[in-house]
């Protein structure tokens, strides 16, 4: 179980999972526009998280989609054409930190409660709700960690699982003055950041 | 800030804003939700052309924009009025045409309740507009309209729809005359990266068999002069896409023609034999590439486009020049060495001689090619040619000749039959002093011919040449070549008498049935001060050659049997 971002996994259908981050204007309809470009190609959005960003009036979206890397990269460029999208990055090959939170309601009896609480501790999760027949657990971390925890809790009787969808962020550079997310990024990684002056990417050059 | 600041109704703000954007003409048709706007329209120096169908308004606005380079404007009411615009918006979207559509919407309180004539038109037009807006406060109208026009005409142009609830037209708000746009995510590129320019120069200077593939971007960016300088400086032959036609004069020594599915064979072969393809505002449409895995394998590609999402979309680029084409060519051309490609040009001349794609077979019958050629001969290269979609469109593309840029207007991307009637109307309204011919199919013409009434009412003097083969000719051709000659649903056995039809609209109607009549009929049409419909009864036994079937490559090229 690792707390670090793992390498891009494969989805059930063998397509690779890509992580795309978008900075968007916080306006009605943005989500529909963004989702529409994935829908048009028949991509499944496996996970989606949206929330306010550090910039006023702007939200960040993290998507996880299953698709051919080249096509996802092209969709990212089409996303960037959307008027309300300020910046888009396919960060799959970047050094990123990603996190997801899950709320899990699991059946618990007097006999199993202790074991569940032990598991909770090992996963550094928190018990947020205790009832007569069930316990509510909050767990945060790498999506793999959450998957593992759910697997281990399943035998006790899973009642409800709510996952937030993953949020991802490029790691801060180790060098002073370095660009965030670039410290270990593969030079040829697919990325696209033409718009924002303070974005970590750079303009695409002739050798494409 | 501004002395212009006043309290106005939403409807008045719309009109003031349109005037500020330089709009002088609007194509539209009213209805309940947009009536408050029509209530004040007459008080402003805005010419409103009342169409017969909102699709006509959208195509007319599109045609107007293509011909003038300005933004074309269409009005429609909510519900069916708005949905009738959709084909026109999609057509404009595919061909990067700057259109702003303003639709009325049901009142704010009624939205979402399936009110009478309510359609979620911003939802419905999401994929066929460059952007769209639902404006919920009159105070937002001024900024929104400013943004909409800016978005429609800059970068890669496209249609923008603004949906305005009825009561927003009636709401009072402050009009300042200098609203500020809020578009942090919209920064169309200007000049290309200088490193990329250097890389392109190196490829061009080294190439032995370069071709330029000139697309619509040349015309949208008003870069045909720069294109000519580019071609002449490095002596590079110019192939034009369907929408790039008229980007370089037809009789220019470096002009080659259109490649692809129904392009001239020598242009397709030249693309295949080239060692460098320089796409200038062209998007490697599948009608040009066929099977991309077998397309132009011997060449490197330089792709110039204002839209970064075009790069690598269909064909991988070795060098991408992202920017406004006029500026990019301005950067590139002076950096190129003067060059000669005598061998390569000789090879292309040889291909032209071996593959005479523009010869017309010997026959006494009247063919579509004869008509297009006769119109070109009679009217000269400055005429605007508008087309529908089908065989006649391809003959128009092949046989029209141009000596001025931006004279060929066709629905290339969406392939919209019916474009030929209203788009030609919009072109003529945009360039009232120029000659506009529409080369129409009898199929497409009947899709939008209701606009003949609009033409009559406004005396818009478009000359319509219907290449009447009493069938959906291109369908016949595909059933012939691809579907085993199983002809079905391709024939029109009950076409109207187009001369009488024109006369019923109060329009001059003419007919020609033989080659001999061509010259005199065209002359008569030209002499008439007003719209004319000519029924050219052409042979049904005709295919467009050459043909590269869809999804195939140059090795499947079919030429006219001799
Ligand atoms: C709105 C629309 N419907 C259907 C088609 C499919 N289509 C392409 S060409 C064609 C035939 C066009 O017939 P006509 O306008 O008579 O022109 P012709 O091919 O005979 O010159 C058809 C039906 C289309 N392009 N557009």
Describe the structure.
The complex is a heterodimer of chains A (208) and B (562). Chain A is α+β, with helices and mostly antiparallel strands and 208 residues long. Chain A has two domains: 9-93, 2-Layer Sandwich (Alpha-Beta Plaits); 97-163, Alpha-Beta Plaits (2-Layer Sandwich), CATH 3.30.70. Chain A has helices spanning 30-40, 69-81, 113-122, 143-157; strands spanning 17-25, 45-52, 58-66, 85-90, 96-107, 126-130, 134-141, 158-163, 167-170. In chain A, strands 5, 6, 7, 8 and 9 form a five-stranded antiparallel sheet that branches. In chain A, a hairpin with a 5-residue loop joins strand 2 and strand 3. The two termini of chain A are 37 Å apart. With 562 residues, chain B is of the alpha/beta class. Chain B has three domains: 6-175, Rossmann fold; 194-354, Rossmann fold (3-Layer(aba) Sandwich), CATH 3.40.50; 368-544, Thiamin diphosphate (ThDP)-binding fold, Pyr/PP domains (Rossmann fold, 3-Layer(aba) Sandwich), CATH 3.40.50. In chain B, 37% of the residues lie in helices and 17% in strands. In chain B, the strands form four sheets. Chain B has a six-stranded parallel sheet with strand order 3-2-4-5-7-6, sandwiched between helices. In chain B, helix 16 crosses helix 17. The A-B interface holds A 24-25, 28-29, 32-33, 36, 40, 58, 70, 74, 77-78, 80-87, 192, 194-195, 203-208 and B 122-123, 126-127, 130-131, 134, 151, 183-187, 189, 193, 195-196, 198-200, 307-309, 311-313, 316-322. The structure holds thiamine diphosphate (TPP). Residues 388-392, 415-418, 441-444, 467, 469, 471-475 of chain B line the site of thiamine diphosphate. The site of thiamine diphosphate has 20 residues of chain B, from helix 17, helix 19 and helix 21.
């Amino acid at each position: 179980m690792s707390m670090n971002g793992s390498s891009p996994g494969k989805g059930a259908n063998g397509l690779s999972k890509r992580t795309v981050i978008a900075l968007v204007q916080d306006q009605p309809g943005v989500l529909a526009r963004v989702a529409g470009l994935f829908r048009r190609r028949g991509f499944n959005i496996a996970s989606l998280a949206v929330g306010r960003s550090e910039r006023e009036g702007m939200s960040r979206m993290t998507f996880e989609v299953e698709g051919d890397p080249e096509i996802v990269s092209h969709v990212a460029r089409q996303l960037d054409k959307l008027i309300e999208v300020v910046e888009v990055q396919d960060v799959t090959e970047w050094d990123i930190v990603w996190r997801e939170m899950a709320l899990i309601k699991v059946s618990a009896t007097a006999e199993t409660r202790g074991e569940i609480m032990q598991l909770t501790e090992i996963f550094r999760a928190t018990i947020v709700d205790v009832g007569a027949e069930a316990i509510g657990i909050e767990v945060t971390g790498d999506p793999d960690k959450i998957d593992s925890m759910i697997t281990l809790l399943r035998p006790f009787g899973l009642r409800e699982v709510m996952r937030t969808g993953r949020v991802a962020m490029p790691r801060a550079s180790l060098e002073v003055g370095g660009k965030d997310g670039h410290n270990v990024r593969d030079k040829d990684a697919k990325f696209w950041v033409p718009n924002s002056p303070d974005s970590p990417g750079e303009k695409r050059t002739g050798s494409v | 800030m501004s002395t212009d600041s006043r309290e106005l109704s939403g409807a008045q703000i719309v009109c003031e804003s349109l005037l500020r954007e330089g709009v002088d003409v609007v194509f539209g048709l009213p209805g309940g939700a947009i009536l408050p706007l029509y209530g004040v329209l007459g008080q402003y120096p805005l010419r409103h052309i009342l169409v017969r169908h909102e699709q006509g308004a959208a195509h007319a606005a599109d045609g107007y924009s293509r011909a003038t380079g300005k933004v074309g404007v269409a009005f429609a009411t909510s519900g069916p009025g708005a949905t009738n615009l959709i084909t026109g918006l999609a057509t404009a979207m595919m061909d990067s045409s700057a259109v702003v559509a303003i639709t009325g919407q049901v009142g704010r309180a009624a939205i979402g309740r399936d009110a009478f004539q309510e359609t979620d038109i911003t939802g419905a037009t999401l994929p066929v507009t460059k952007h769209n807006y639902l404006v919920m406060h009159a105070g937002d109208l001024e900024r929104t309209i400013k943004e909409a026009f800016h978005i429609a005409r800059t970068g890669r142009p496209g249609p923008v729809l603004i949906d305005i609830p009825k009561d927003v037209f009636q709401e009072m708000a402050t009009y300042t005359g200098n609203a500020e746009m809020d578009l942090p995510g919209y920064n169309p590129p200007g000049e290309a990266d200088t490193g990329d320019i250097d890389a392109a120069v190196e490829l061009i200077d080294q190439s032995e068999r370069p071709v330029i593939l000139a697309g619509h971007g040349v015309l949208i960016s008003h870069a045909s002069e720069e294109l000519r300088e580019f071609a002449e400086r490095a002596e590079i032959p110019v192939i034009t896409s369907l929408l790039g036609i008229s980007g370089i004069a037809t009789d220019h020594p470096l002009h080659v023609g259109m490649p692809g599915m129904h392009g001239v064979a020598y242009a397709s072969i030249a693309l295949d034999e080239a060692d460098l393809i320089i796409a200038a505002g062209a998007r490697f449409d599948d009608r040009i590439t066929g099977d991309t895995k077998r397309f132009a394998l011997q060449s490197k590609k330089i792709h110039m486009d204002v839209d970064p999402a075009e790069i690598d979309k269909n064909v991988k680029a070795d060098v991408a020049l992202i920017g406004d084409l006029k500026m990019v060519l301005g950067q590139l051309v002076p950096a190129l060495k003067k060059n000669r490609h005598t061998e390569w040009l000789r090879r292309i001349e040889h291909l032209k001689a071996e593959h005479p794609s523009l010869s017309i077979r010997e026959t006494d019958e009247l063919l579509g090619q004869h008509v297009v050629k006769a119109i070109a001969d009679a009217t000269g290269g400055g005429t605007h040619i508008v087309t529908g979609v089908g065989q006649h469109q391809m003959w128009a593309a092949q046989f029209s000749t141009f000596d001025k840029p931006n004279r060929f207007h066709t629905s290339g991307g969406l392939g919209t039959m019916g474009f030929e009637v209203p788009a030609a109307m919009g072109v003529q309204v945009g360039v009232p002093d120029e000659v506009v011919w529409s080369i129409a199919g009898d199929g497409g013409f009947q899709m939008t011919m209701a606009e003949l009434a609009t033409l009559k009412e406004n005396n818009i003097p478009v000359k319509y040449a219907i290449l009447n083969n009493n069938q959906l000719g291109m369908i016949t051709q595909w059933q012939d070549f691809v579907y085993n000659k199983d002809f079905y649903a391709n024939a029109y056995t009950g076409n109207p008498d187009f001369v009488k039809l024109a006369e019923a609209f109060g329009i001059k109607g003419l007919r020609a049935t033989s080659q001999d009549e061509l010259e005199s009929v065209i002359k008569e049409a030209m002499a008439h001060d007003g719209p004319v419909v000519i029924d050219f009864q052409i042979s049904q036994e005709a295919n467009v050659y050459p043909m590269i079937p869809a999804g195939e490559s140059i090795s499947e090229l079919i030429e006219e049997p001799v």
